[in-house]
Specification:
7 helices
Length: 168
């Protein structure tokens, strides 16, 4: 496939570079991997009753977020050039994601990374700012409420509009 047939940001490799930049910023700081590697401590509810999925602020270049948004638009465009559709179909033969799923993933990732600070996120950021990143943190009741609101907001962005957190 001739890269000249691809629209920006795919043609120039900027999309791939942005994905690598974002992954490089996120992977060391998030989830069980980061905790197991000692990069981040556990985030515990008041009195240490249970462990939360750790939330850590990560600085991601705004340009990379904009590229992810543009990539999602290109991948999700039903009128995308043949080179894009062919590339997605060839990639699909090697993976389980459809073009629509890949576009939705890029859009959700951009939305997740493009969150504005609110009072709850600011409270959590300030609480974690002076703590050794590898140290466990036990939240106060007020911080717990802020965590729950922030987690709800992030889950809604990741789920593309808000999937219920509980099944009945």
């Amino acid at each position: 496939m001739d890269p000249a047939e691809l629209p920006d940001p795919l043609a120039t490799g900027i999309a791939l570079a942005s994905v690598r930049n974002v992954a490089g910023a996120l992977v060391p700081t998030q989830g069980r991997f980061a905790t197991d590697q000692g990069h981040t401590g556990r985030l515990l509810a008041p009195d240490g009753r249970y462990e939360h999925a750790p939330l850590r602020r990560v600085d991601v270049d705004t340009a990379d977020i904009l590229v992810l948004k543009a990539t999602a638009r290109v991948l999700g465009d039903p009128a995308a050039p043949d080179a894009v559709r062919d590339g997605l179909e060839n990639g699909r033969a090697k993976a389980t994601s459809t073009a629509a799923e890949l576009a939705a993933y890029a859009a959700r990732l951009a939305a997740l990374l493009d969150q504005a600070d609110d009072a709850d996120a600011t409270m959590l950021r300030d609480r974690l700012a002076d703590v050794d990143p590898a140290a466990d943190v036990v939240l106060t009741h007020e911080e717990e409420a802020a965590y729950q609101k922030t987690a709800d907001r992030l889950n809604a962005a990741w789920q593309g509009g808000g999937l219920g957190r509980l099944l009945y």
